[in-house]
Amino acid sequence: MAKRLLGKEVNASLNKKIKKEVLELKDKGIEPAICMIRVGEHEDDISYERGASKRAETLGVKVIKRVLPLDIEERELVQVIKEANMDASIHGVLLFRPLPKHINEKRILEHLDPAKDIDGITKTSMASIYSGDKEGFPPCTAAACMEILNHYQIDLTGKKVVVIGRSLVVGKPVSMMILKENGTVTICHSKTEDLPSVTREADIVIVAAGKARIIGKEYLKEGQIVIDVGIHVDENGKLCGDVKLEEAEELVEGITPVPGGVGTVTTSILISHVVKAANRQR
Amino acid sequence: MAKRLLGKEVNASLNKKIKKEVLELKDKGIEPAICMIRVGEHEDDISYERGASKRAETLGVKVIKRVLPLDIEERELVQVIKEANMDASIHGVLLFRPLPKHINEKRILEHLDPAKDIDGITKTSMASIYSGDKEGFPPCTAAACMEILNHYQIDLTGKKVVVIGRSLVVGKPVSMMILKENGTVTICHSKTEDLPSVTREADIVIVAAGKARIIGKEYLKEGQIVIDVGIHVDENGKLCGDVKLEEAEELVEGITPVPGGVGTVTTSILISHVVKAANRQR
């Protein structure tokens, strides 16, 4: 039976570190603050906003919420972003995406100050993740995967890591971070032929396929570590991941459950980025 | 015996296309021009400069050479770059690197206009390659690998492509380009364990290890396509690649020779980027 790699265990040590840094900042008269910019009332956004706000509060980070109407004009949204850039009491900006279709997302992102881009969505942050320097912040979900591996002291040097998914939110950034940790990375996707034969060769599998319970035991082997990035609601209204958890955990060595895995860590990572940004902006 | 994938064959069709585009530009009164900025008299730089200048001349592209002393100050080099940015008759800038140690390369690159960055070295270009949009130019060597595969109609969809090397000049950009063409990409490097077992699984192997003749038949299998990015001078003073050509070509299906492979195509790609940049700047 696999060891469950639990978000709460990772968070226990991560949050302790964050709290300490927040106290140090407050001693210097700085209250780290995140500005969350949400356009419309998308359910996923509200849910993430709620989780992140709660986590921020627990850790002593201030939350400023900007909720904007769905029919906001592009130039008005730009104005809100510019205000957040200019406001020295705001250290990190989280912009919920996707934005409504009448807004050119790419053009919007050009206005966000890379120093406050705590979810790695600007060009500058992307170039940083890609090149492996330490300037920009990686997307929080990708960073959460790495934090879990790091917490459980799973060294990546020389290991075969297979990533399923090539998105800019998880697949690509986590692959670049694995390379930086000296892992040998294989990036798979919807066009990969005979995916099970590829994933079975891995020491570590990071699943960000975006489809509920598509990875069963035929994709896995004994001794593997599985990080499941997916979050879905199944036909019974229960949360589940991209991996068939019950099936997988009978076979592999370690696995992150859904719920209680990557998602839980992501919000702590977000807040840790705010704190890091506040430290850099001093 | 493997088919040799020859740079001259790729160039024959690539150069024809470039010449046509140059003529079309000249008809519109535009003479596409590249500015090559070289600091010092590094032999490799001079050799590349010579090859690229000759290719440019053949294809009807103007070359402006700026040769600067090794002890140039950073602000003077920035000035040269700014002049090239401002000069509307220059469409692409090639800056030879590495720069001397007293110059902060990263700071220098911030001054180069991304629109004229024909070798993909600015942050904007990197973000573009990484995200897969079409804005920036990829590094010419990476693009040359793709051009060869494309010329010989080697479809990457679903194929297993193993890249040896994780540099920003070849390994990373070519991996991103393979992903975009729907290949399944594995990025290997000096820390990869049991490299031969990884490369033998590939349909296509792109070798950018940067070490002379380290890839022999034990890394390869029948039916593979091998792209050899390395260029070295061996102990007998002869040019060779990262792959043991004689050994490999007895086994695999197709291979780029060194000399006469990737390097030959790289200079044509460089000139094609200048022409593309000139078209965009109209």
Q: What do you see in this structure?
A:
2 copies of one chain form a homodimer. With 282 residues, chain A is an alpha/beta fold. Helices cover 41% and strands 16% of the residues of chain A. A 6-stranded parallel sheet of chain A has the order 1-11-8-7-5-6. Chain A has a 3-stranded parallel sheet with strand order 3-2-4, sandwiched between helices. In chain A, β2, α2 and β3 form a beta-alpha-beta unit. In chain A, α1 runs parallel beside α10 and α2 packs across α10. The model of chain A has no long low-confidence stretch (mean pLDDT 97). Chains A and B meet through α5, α7 and β6 of A and α5, α7 and β6 of B. β6 of chain A pairs antiparallel with β6 of chain B.
- Order of H and E elements of chain A: EHEHEHEHHHEHEHEEEEHEH
Q: How many strands appear in the DSSP assignment of chain A?
A: 11
Characterize the overall form of chain A: globular
- Termini distance of chain A? 48 Å
Total of DSSP H or I helical runs spanning 4+ residues of chain A: 10
Q: Roughly what percent helix of chain A? A: 40-55%
Q: Biggest interface, and residues per chain?
A: A-B, 29 and 29 residues
| Assembly context of the chains | homodimer
> Main β-sheet of chain A, in a few words?
6 strands, parallel
Cα-atom radius of gyration of chain A: 19 Å
Uncertain runs of chain A: none
Which strand-content bin applies to the residues of chain A?
Answer: 15-25%
